[in-house]
TrEMBL record:
GO terms for molecular function: DNA binding. It holds the Pfam family HTH_31. InterPro entries: Cro/C1-type_HTH, Lambda_DNA-bd_dom_sf. SUPFAM superfamilies: lambda repressor-like DNA-binding domains. Keywords: Membrane, Transmembrane, Transmembrane helix. This is Helix-turn-helix protein. Residues 97-121 are annotated as: Disordered. It comes from the Bacteria. The keyword Membrane applies. The chain crosses the membrane at residues 226-249.
């Protein structure tokens, strides 16, 4: 007799839907921008019109081979962000082929092993926010997906809040929001550390990266940052679903 399975968390179902819808919609925008009909797209991509139509209407989740062919046909040369997004959706959907195989359409520089952006060199609030934007792109998470995923964390991140933060680039996120953002983007505990340290440095008005020694204030901040990150991570694991042991976050 098979072991019983737990019912899927509502947030997990919503995240799957949002990731698939956003992925399909953005593919469709590429086709429209390129001015291609499905007949023309199929001719350039060497794929069937049905598979391409289903891909950008969210009816089915395309293989990476189909996705790469779609991108190339639309003139999209940089496959790296799309490959990470594809892998993110594949993980959420439980696809067995969650790590894309190299295809004849893939750029030789494509890799899923590229490290996340490093915020340590940020000297202004705007630079730090730019690094957050790069991290969001690196993670493959859309604004809507971040909003849904953060609902199981101590600080929810509404789409409007994140859009305002990343667009205006004039203020640092508060500590709980930053913690939720880093977790949703898939950073582990060690990778989160420089983000908290840099944000604290900028709040103190220090533009240059700190020296290697740590004063008492820095030690206090380190303890505080660890406590915040631990709280958010513990909540993520405890709540299960999309933020638990299903492994949708980090690659």
């Amino acid at each position: 007799m098979a072991a019983p399975t737990l019912p899927e968390d509502e947030n997990a179902r919503r995240l799957k839907t949002v990731l698939l819808e956003d992925f399909a919609q953005d593919l469709g925008q590429l086709r429209k921008a390129a001015g291609l009909s499905y007949t023309q797209l199929a001719a350039h991509a060497f794929q069937s019109k049905t598979s391409l139509y289903n891909a950008d209407h969210g009816k089915t989740f395309p293989t990476w081979e189909v996705t790469a062919a779609y991108l190339t046909a639309c003139g999209e040369d940089d496959h790296q962000p799309w490959k990470r997004r594809w892998a993110r959706v594949a993980v959420a959907l439980g696809r067995r082929d969650r790590r894309p195989h190299r295809s004849r359409h893939a750029n030789s520089a494509d890799t899923l092993d590229r490290p996340p952006p490093d915020p340590n060199q940020a000297t202004t609030v705007a630079h730090f926010i730019d690094s957050m934007s790069e991290l969001r792109s690196w993670s493959g998470m859309t604004y809507r997906a971040i909003a849904v995923a953060s609902e199981c964390l101590p600080r929810r991140i509404p789409t409007s809040t994140l859009s305002d933060l990343l667009t205006h680039r004039v203020r640092l996120p508060d500590e709980p929001l930053l913690a939720s953002f880093l977790i949703v983007c898939g950073l582990n505990h060690d990778d989160q550390q420089p983000w908290f340290t840099t944000a604290h440095r900028l709040r103190l008005g220090t533009s240059e990266p700190p020296a290697t020694h740590h004063d008492g204030n820095q030690q206090w901040w380190t303890r505080r940052r660890i406590a915040i990150a631990a709280l958010a991570t513990a909540a993520a694991v405890a709540l299960g679903g999309i933020c638990g042991a299903q492994g949708w976050m980090p690659f």
